[in-house]
Protein 1
Amino acid sequence: MIQSTLPHQYIDRNTRQIVTEKPIGDHSVRFLYNGVRESAPAMFKALTSARISRLLAFFHYDLPVSHRKTGLELFKGIGADWHECLDPLSFYDSHRKVFERRIRYWETRPMNRNPSTIVSPADSRILIGSLADGSALFIKDKFFDLEELLGPAGSLWHNRFRTGDFAVFRLTPDKYHYNHVPVSGRVVDIYNLDGRYHSCNPSALIAMASLCSKNRRVVTIINTDVDGGSAIGMVAMVEIVALMIGDIVQTYSEDRYTNPQDVRPGMFLTKGCPKSLFRPGSSTDVLLFEPNRIRFADDLVSNSHRNDVQSRFTNGFGRPLAETDIMVRSAIAEPLNQPQLSIEEGNL
């Protein structure tokens, strides 16, 4: 049973303060994942279909804005900061434009200068874990099943990541929704996997085991052991749709947002550059790492174990499991053979 009335808290990485989140659509999620899923599975399947997801997105993001709300009102309505945007405030006359906004990330999202540092692919709330049962971060089969997540098309990669580490990045509707490349390396595989359009509300993630591997997603495998790469082996970046996400558009650009390109096998991707855009709603990224190649930043590890945070993940999984709110391009890990990364140097 989903306890969506329970508070959900996370840790702000910059201030280290505990913040209480009110996940959007709590009552609807409780009704859908408790009542409908259990009593009317056919209806539940229909409500998490691509057709319904597109319809909800149209009503929420594409209908004319009532009373001609100003761009400032639209930004205030979701708690986002228009000052960091690339386009002027007058450009933002719809919910969709606000959701798909471009920011001056080269100024507002500074990146660690160490070429081997792994960075966050998104403005998001991160949970870290491991598929190795001997790890203190072991969380097997909670958010995804590895084989199901990568799918039959990714069978070549199952053994590569079977006992490796992972990070789950949960984007909320107020976030900047471009994904950026977390490492430098060459694309060896990219493919789409069909699936549903489940919510990424924490209660939904708890209610359905391996929910991340049930949604429609794009899998990109990056070889970082190449010239100019981050030298941490293979990395899988999985971009996952959610309720009201109509599409994942590959828009890789070396120079800010200019000349966007599809991501293709053989292409070299540079860490920190824009890779793709979620259209619209809330959504999730998952990074998979080979075993014994990386270690997560100290603050992310300690935050995940904090027992003073009222996290629904803690309540749902029966162990301390707290998210940290982080910015895209901020450092999350280093190669295992390098000095441990601290929060003080994490955003240099």
Note: Residues 16 and 90 are 35 Å apart (CA to CA).
Protein 2
Amino acid sequence: MSDSPTTTTPQARFYEKRDDGKIRCRLCPHNCVIADGKVGFCQVRKNEAGELVLPFYGAASALGVDPIEKKPLFHFHPGTPILSVGFLGCFLRCPFCQNYRISQSTVAHTERVSPDDLVSRAQREDSFGIAYTYNEPSIHAEYVLDSAERAADAGLKNVLVTAGYLNEDSAKEIYAAMDAANIDLKGFQEDFYRKELAGGLKEVLRGIEIAYERCHVEVTTLVIPGKNDSDEETREIAKFIAGLDPNIPLHMSAYYPTFNYTTEATSPSHLLSRIEIAREHLNFVYPGNIRAPANTHCPSCGNLLIERSGYRTRVPGVRDGHCSECGAEVPVAGL
């Protein structure tokens, strides 16, 4: 483990040079103009003598095996363990971030892990793939893409857990390298994204569309009282997702005070009422961060397809990818 990056600084992609020696990063919509010796908004992409370099390439802040349901992904190889790796930094400034110690700082302890080492570890752990998660992994796009290529060559799946705030070109390349993604949709108000998160809603919505065209997608919304929890906003979120595919799973999670937010926690009853609204438009809406059933039922006949107890999973109602009762196709990968 180390407190700071090594002197190895691989060169980045997704940027352009300027005549004044500054660099414009093109990875995310911040499009940072970075002076020599400085870093971008994400804190991990640096201008070094006119080149954009990656001082935190392969610096893992967290590394371990999780159930795939913890990402959360409920419709992608249910009940399967996946090696999960996190890094440092973020392209947003969410005041309620649960992982702020690694997303809003670059001083946390890290362990250098090469893409080849990451794949080897996944194989040793009997993981079916690699999940890039915990902080905002896409700001380490070069490392993620390098690792994803090696993982795919080894027959492993690649999963991205992201807030989805990317420029179109980088989003297309990153999601094309993934087998699945869980994307945070933190609300449906542009002002909320701009003023509180330092991001933008329209870019995230476009990112979800791009991801849906390229890999399996699930969406997560953290329900925060007084911020993004109105009936109207819940319906807008659900309608947007349903416009792509009503079978896309939506995970609606309860908020708890953390980091810079002291807003009261989301009550279970309020969260469940938001879920019922979302189910007006979507076939699969699941609660998170509360004790409540998160089972999967057949939209056609109501048969119990997948039963979940914590992170333990049982699949009683699926036969050869179809509902055991009515024969409808089950939109769950890996069954």
Note: The mean pLDDT is 96.
Protein 3
Amino acid sequence: MRICVILNPIAGAVKNVDTVRERFDVLKPERFHVTREPGDAEKFASEASDLDLIVSAGGDGTLNEVVNGIARGGCNAALAVFPLGTGNDFARTLGVPNSVDTVMEQIVEGKTRAIDLVRVTSDQVRYFVNVSSGGFSGVVDEKLTAEMKRTWGPLAYLRSAAAAFAELRGYTTTVALDDAEASEVDLYNVVVANGRYVAGGIPVAPEADIADGLLDIVLIPERGPAELAILAAQILVGKHLGSDAIIFRRAKKIAIKSRPGMWFNVDGELIGNEPATFELLPGALQCVVGAA
């Protein structure tokens, strides 16, 4: 199997690049790239279209770049996730273990399954495998810096949310699901999920399935402070889907337009403000999974 490894040297779990690189000797990679600036992982992935497997060694941001390199470049290589980031949320959805040796065994075994990919068209066209959110979540990502991630780890997400809370505002939002007639609702937040987790393990879409051909959509309408506090606690433990404080839907496509325009992120990376259209591409990506 011809393998390309793409390593983000400043991912949260990387202490020594040479030590990490030695870990990958067992794979005998044909190419080993170390990113230096934003966009490198996408470029390296797009240039690996002639290989069999691309290993994303970093966090969710690195993974998103690799996924876009595969999708944009027409690459047929399979994807393997080696989680080294702060959140590693998509790795949780995949059930990738924390044990380095076990992850390596899974990659060597090379068992893959077809998973869904999502294309979002907004200020730009972007692909993702985990979660995109707009509204309040976009403001939170604006507050979240690389320094905060390095200093606080997963707690950085909570700190950035606290910093953004003063800017909480509603958005008059037009939502169209699949071919149904659009409806208008005042929202704080929109979550479009393929995977289950965000912000270092919060189960924002606890029933999402990366191979069911559907997006899980969580809309958070404007609510009072007391209701929002209860809802936040429910989201932290994944008990919010049955709450009257949210709107939960499943669809293959969702189009969003709001006043003022929402900023959206994909897998934690800001892409710009809306209008945004999300389209599911069923089984479009081969991904390494465990033996079970």
Note: The domain at 125-282 is CATH 2.60.200.40 (Tumour Suppressor Smad4).
